[in-house]
Structure to design on (277 residues):
């Protein structure tokens, strides 16, 4: 598996530099942590992120490959880690029940804050699908002025018992990934469909790096690690984890455990031991 993009001659050098910083580990994979969970949680602030400063300190102590956050958090709390850990700036607010993507940050904001990539979240398989993809395409075009990579967090929706919810079926995930690729994303983050061969097919069909979303809160850290182990078996280029890191006690150790699975190919049980859990 190629760890860098040296063979991509058409890519601008600035974008290449930033992507290489994100995927700098010798494994060629990305183990990033997300703390951009805010407005999407309509029932209030999620546990684990109520006190952002200690949460960020615990995450940073684990040495993740990158952290994704909103611009206000980056401006106010990222100073101790600036230049030490790559920053991914989240640009959008989105909810499943109000599926239209709304941008609150731009590529210029990302450059000013020193980010290595701009993230955008979008839902598909919903009435606002075309509008969301048009917003993504505009985001890609805006970021190109600065040779800034765009990471699309793409989620297909399906009608659930309480309204729209994320779909994890292989066909829906494959559709979502293709939509992000067609709109020009440099890296795609998509849900794991729960089936290794099906996910491997989705990864193989994706011409840009595909990383997995960390998924809903698992019943245990070991269960969350087992899911990411399946993601790695499917050939993904890594994962971005949120709730299954800061949603459990021992946040630093959780980061270390996910790194052991993603970068070193450890089993969940081995990863827990490596992390001292």
């Amino acid at each position: 598996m190629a760890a860098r993009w040296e063979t991509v001659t058409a890519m601008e050098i600035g974008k290449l530099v930033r992507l290489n910083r994100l995927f700098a580990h010798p494994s060629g994979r990305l183990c990033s942590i997300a703390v951009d969970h805010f407005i999407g949680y309509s029932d209030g602030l999620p546990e684990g992120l109520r006190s952002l400063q200690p949460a960020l300190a615990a995450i940073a102590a684990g040495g993740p490959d990158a952290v994704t956050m909103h611009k206000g958090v980056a401006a106010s709390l990222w100073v101790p880690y600036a230049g030490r850990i790559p920053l991914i700036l989240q640009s959008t607010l989105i909810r499943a029940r109000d599926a239209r993507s709304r941008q609150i940050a731009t590529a210029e904001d990302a450059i000013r804050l020193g980010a290595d990539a701009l993230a955008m979240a979008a839902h598909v398989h919903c009435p606002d699908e075309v509008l969301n993809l048009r917003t993504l395409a505009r985001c890609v075009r805006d970021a190109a002025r600065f040779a800034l990579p765009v990471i699309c967090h793409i989620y297909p929706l399906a009608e659930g018992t309480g309204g729209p919810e994320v779909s994890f079926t292989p066909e829906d995930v494959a559709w979502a990934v293709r939509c992000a690729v067609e709109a020009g994303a440099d890296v795609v983050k998509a849900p794991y469909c729960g089936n290794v061969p099906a996910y491997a097919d989705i990864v193989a069909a994706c011409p840009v790096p595909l990383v997995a979303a960390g998924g809903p809160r698992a019943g245990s850290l070991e269960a969350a690690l087992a899911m990411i182990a399946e993601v790695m078996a499917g050939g993904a280029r890594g994962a971005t984890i949120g709730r299954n890191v800061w949603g459990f006690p021992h946040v630093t150790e959780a980061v270390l455990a996910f790194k052991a699975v993603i970068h070193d190919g450890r089993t969940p049980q081995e990863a827990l031991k490596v992390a001292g859990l």
Q: What stands out?
A: Residues 66 and 86 are 5 Å apart (CA to CA). The chain has a mean pLDDT of 91. The two ends are 30 Å apart (CA to CA). The longest strand covers residues 150-160.
